[in-house]
Amino acid sequence: MKINDNNLTESPRICFGENPIRDLQFSPDSTHLAVARGNSVLIYDAETGTEISLITGHTASITSIFFNLDGKTLMSACEEGTIRISRTSTSRCAGTIHDYEGEFVAFSPDGNSFAAKSWGLADWEVDKIHVFDIATSTLVQTIRADNSSSFLGIVFSPDGKTLAISECERHVLDGPCPISLWDISTGSRLKTLTVVVGGAFSIVFSPDGRTLADSGGLWDHRIALWNIQSGKRHRALFREERVNAWAHSLAFSPDSRVLASGHSDGRVLIWDVAIGEHLKTFSGHTAKVSSLCFSPDGSSLATGCEDGTVLLWDILD
Q1: DSSP string, 192-245
Q2: Which of 67, 184, 239, 291 has its Cα between 20 and 30 A from that of 113?
């Protein structure tokens, strides 16, 4: 994917709403965009931005959504601890998973499992991540935080065998916070990539599985790129004039060559991963960019904001 100032459109297609955007997902064929807004999922035509259908049924805010690989069903997880499986053609519910505890859910790339993060609310409780098989709704693994740590974010590796977990010190805002890789089959920590002061709220794998990006912590807003095999940082993405606009969301392009970062001031920055060069800034949102994703064919970028807007940007090869 080759991106420069000449092939990024300045006028995005816009989808309006009232509730903050929690998650965005393109269909596998890139023709539709699902948007988690409040306790509903809206599905839009990705070319025109026109609303096509509405999926309802949740009684709490939806935190995560995921299209299955053939695009015929969509899974949505909400804060009440329920996952609904809906037919995209009819918006009807095809199944529900109730028996899990977790206020945040990450789906595996193949759609066969999910990881649910639960908070240890009392001082004597520890945070846990439960990994479930979706077909059987059975628990396959539990990962526990240390007594002094809390889990901030989780993401599956592209092969679905590893979880990257961002942690922070409990009750401490400026302490050292590790980002670690965990083996799902054994529940054991494989390696710690880095320690971020203040904790990284957004972490994401590149589709080729070679790189992990983190958004930086509360006190260091530099986006870091980590080599998975060596465990070492090979790039830091940073613009001096944007030092106070920390990154809240991250997404790699399908070919792993470009990274998009959504920031607290409403801007979206586009980066060349290989050389760390800033390619472009998208402006249009009026609040924190809460979610973003590239279409599977690499032609579009969707950005969602806490002000309830979704912007669709054309990205041409």
Answers
A1: EEEEEET--S-EEE-TTSSEEEE---SS---EEEEETTT--EEEEE--GGGTTS
A2: 291
- What local confidence, expressed as pLDDT, does residue 5 receive? 46
* Partners of 33 in the β-ladder: 26, 44
Please give the torsion angle defined by the CA atoms of residues 33, 137, 39 and 116, in that order, rounded to the nearest 10 degrees.
Answer: -90
Name the DSSP letter for residue 71: S
Please, what is the Cα angle at 191 between 187 and 195, to 5 degrees?
115
Does the pLDDT at position 287 exceed 70? yes
Q: What is the pLDDT of residues 224-256, one digit of tens each?
A: 899 999 888 888 887 655 445 788 899 999 999
Instruction: Give the SS3 label for residue 7.
Output: helix
Tell me, what's the pLDDT at 146?
74
Cα 49–47–60 angle (5° rounding)? 40
pLDDT at residue 159 greater than cutoff 70: yes
∠ CA 283-287-288, nearest 5°, is: 95
Tokens of 219: 């006190």
Predicted pLDDT at 48? 86
Please state, in angstroms and as integers, the Cα–Cα distance from residue 247 to each residue in 154, 200, 203, 226, 317, following that order: 16, 9, 10, 16, 25
The C-alpha atoms of residue 180 and residue 143 are separated, in whole angstroms, by: 12
CA dihedral 214, 215, 217, 219 (to 10 degrees): 130
- Assess contact for 145 and 151: CB atoms under 8 A: yes
165, 194 contact by CB (below 8 A) = no
What pLDDT score was predicted for residue 107?
95
pLDDT of residue 244: 59
H or E segment and range at residue 58: none
CA distances from 23 to 235, 238, 314 (A): 27, 25, 19
Rounded Cα distance, 86 and 237, in Å: 38
CA dist., res. 53 & res. 31, Å (int): 13
